[in-house]
């Protein structure tokens, strides 16, 4: 008989919130006061406002220890608040574009302040609509208790799926483990092995992440054994080695793995995940970025992890890409969104299918590099102009609020809870863009999660089939752990 797990815990976060609010606010003020020179006061103060608002709302807008909402504000703090003002004062321009004036930065910042307002109001209304504020005093701590009591793990199906995905991954990498360890070798090997866009999409978005997703969903079910976790971890490292894939890919897989294996730590320490991500952006991601190509072996000795220098790299081009389309009034129209929604349709069947918005901007303005991203709000602008910026803010606000609320307070099915953890990692990718790539990966990960769930987990008997297929979606009853 499966040991039943209590699914709610009451955690006092007030002191943690206050300490984090004071620490992050003070750190930001020191950053702006010590490292920046306020070349233009309007740019300086609007960037400071974006940063401080992001910190405050990240801590106070929702009561959860980690959430999609918190990842949204963390993205805004770093990519829309800190990085732009550093690049402005350093006269940094990416991809051979023109230098933006102080007025253009001020206009861009002013729009983003309105975006923060629209998003925050939308999220708050969607989160608390029809619910009492005190409903979040207790939070879900494990997978659905009633579901895990009525399902069982089919290990044969689990390992059949994961080993098949591992063999295919090895095949596309020419059965050379070295090709799996370094990204430029991985990209080269897969590019030589796959010549069809549909096959490439299926492999990257559905097949390759299967081992990592299987590890997450098995751990969340609490039905696996230590040997299962060990073997799935090994297969995950083989197929999705952190240095052999794009950083957003690694984040989407390894953030949920860390979350589910150190669940208690993240749930009892408010914003602990955000702190880990900040450290990753400051230290780990610059390291991963330095080995994306062969230049790593030549420049390792000059590798630096200076935060200011890091913010001046093209990894933080998100703001400038958004500002470019706004200042140039570049609006190709809704065909970009149509291309995103029909990402799975081959170009042979869809001749007018566009390219990603970042690539399109690079072509239009003669940038020196075309494989670049497009900020989520820049995507809104290229589709619908200024209205699109705020429409996209409303959409992401509703999605984040509804999913946060369901995850923390509802009796969700296992695959939905698993995908929430994956979506935590994908949130940054979606916001940084471009939307064509991030949407394709999000849908691929979703299909892979659902596929594994229905393949691997089976109802214990016929009477339990309705529980397995249609778990209740309402709010559960709180029960305190002693």
Gist of the model:
Helices cover 66% and strands 2% of the residues.
Beta-strand content bin? under 5%
The count of domains is 1
Low-confidence segments, ≥5 residues, pLDDT <50? 1-11, 138-144, 296-305, 466-482
Total beta strand runs: 4
Helix content: 55-70%
Q: Quick one: overall form?
A: globular
Compute the separation of the termini in Å: 22 Å
* Averaged pLDDT: 82
Main beta sheet: 2 strands, antiparallel
- Helices and strands, in order, run as EHHHHEHEHHHHHHHHHHHHHHHHHHEH
Total number of helical segments? 24
C-alpha-based Rg, rounded: 23 Å
- Helix/strand-derived class? mainly alpha
Spatial strand arrangement across the major sheet: 1-2
What does this structure look like?
It is a single chain. This protein has 482 residues and is mostly helical. The protein has one domain. Helices cover 66% and strands 2% of the residues. α1 packs antiparallel against α2.
Considering the chains and any ligands shown, give keywords for the structure.
482 residues; 24 helices; single chain; 4 strands; disordered N terminus; two-stranded antiparallel ribbon; mainly alpha
Write the layout of secondary structure elements.
Layout: E1 8-10, H1 14-35, H2 41-60, H3 68-89, H4 102-128, E2 138-140, H5 145-148, E3 151-153, H6 155-172, H7 177-181, H8 183-193, H9 197-207, H10 210-221, H11 226-239, H12 247-261, H13 263-268, H14 272-290, H15 296-299, H16 307-311, H17 318-327, H18 335-341, H19 357-365, H20 376-384, H21 386-409, H22 414-432, H23 435-456, E4 457-459, H24 465-469
Antiparallel strand pairs: 1-2, 3-4
Helix pairs in contact: 1-2, 2-3, 2-4, 3-4, 3-22, 4-21, 6-11, 9-23, 10-11, 10-12, 10-22, 10-23, 12-22, 17-20, 18-23, 20-21, 22-23
